[in-house]
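Submission sheet (multi-component)
Chains listed below:
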Amino acid sequence: MSIHFLTIETTCDETAAAVITEDLHVLSSVVASQDDLHRRYGGVVPEIASRAHVERILPVIHEALRRADIRLSDLAAVAVAHTPGLAGSLLVGLCAAKALCAALDIPLIGINHLQAHVYACRIASGEDVFPCVGLVVSGGHTSLYRCRGPLDFELLGSTIDDAAGEAFDKVASMLKLPYPGGPSVQHAAEKGNPKAYDFPRGLLDDPDSPDFSFSGLKTAVRYAITGPGRHDPTEFELSEQQVADLAASFQEAVVDCLVTKTMRAAAASGVKKICVGGGVAANARLRERLAAAAREAGATLYIAPLRLCTDNAVMGAIAVEKWRAGRLDGLDLDIVPGVVRGS
Ligand code: KG4
Ligand code: ZN
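Outcome: structure written.
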């Protein structure tokens, strides 16, 4: 009889639960996306996200248990992403996890959502991906880690302003492309010239800075559309080719920064494995450029399949590592909305 874990994910706008065994078999994975609720606002509205989590959390957990064909009484522990994320969203998952642990008298395991994004590569590949350099690129975060082991993460750098995914979403709305912005910018970029506009690569010229910056790039795209002055970019009529060229040039600038900083970090730390996770890791151009850079550096690249790049509860399998290490949490566990520097 294997040991079962329920993992819960509510850090942003996906309500997700999964059932995983101690030997890392995924028995079920359920993700309820809120894209339809946030589309009209062009971004995630925290208040709407937390209310939607409240509505969905119990049906999602119930469905995860049903698909895994187990009962609540079969659970050995409940794991929940308690950092980082939107406070109201994190609270819903944490309260649900605590209620289950209290009722079933089983341990609670708090997990770091960004470390879980890296761990998605471990689950997807079935290989030991550690030690590695881990890049997490999502709507809320752009973080680079040195990961000595599954529970030993050191934050090397992160964005000092916008996250990469946030920049994709904002540029998409300037170009009047549909939400979520990442996939639509990628699609528009397919017919564009990545050299049409010479957009800035924030902090790329500073070899000592492991951090990222995308707000200058976002502003440069805005001015490329509007010219100088404070105009609303959506009031400008752009040709299909202009949209494609802007999208391709923007995407190339983001990808340049992500690839260069990741490869620099890998070279500096001497590791030959690179793990990439988060919604932006679904980007085809990023995947292509990272694969080429890793090949050139003689490193092995692990990028999760698309369904494990965007938010999901399967990556919460990192809880199994904590279980094995005896690193359990009490019912006093709190949310930590900001990024944690170490593990
Ligand atoms: O990891 P995720 O699902 O949620 C957060 O934790 O933020 O990432 C969502 C982000 C959004 O900003 C979305 O536009 C971006 O990932 N994204 C992409 C692509 N698919 C999703 N960005 C670029 N290219 C894509 N193909
Ligand atoms: Zn995420």
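Remark: The mean pLDDT is 94.
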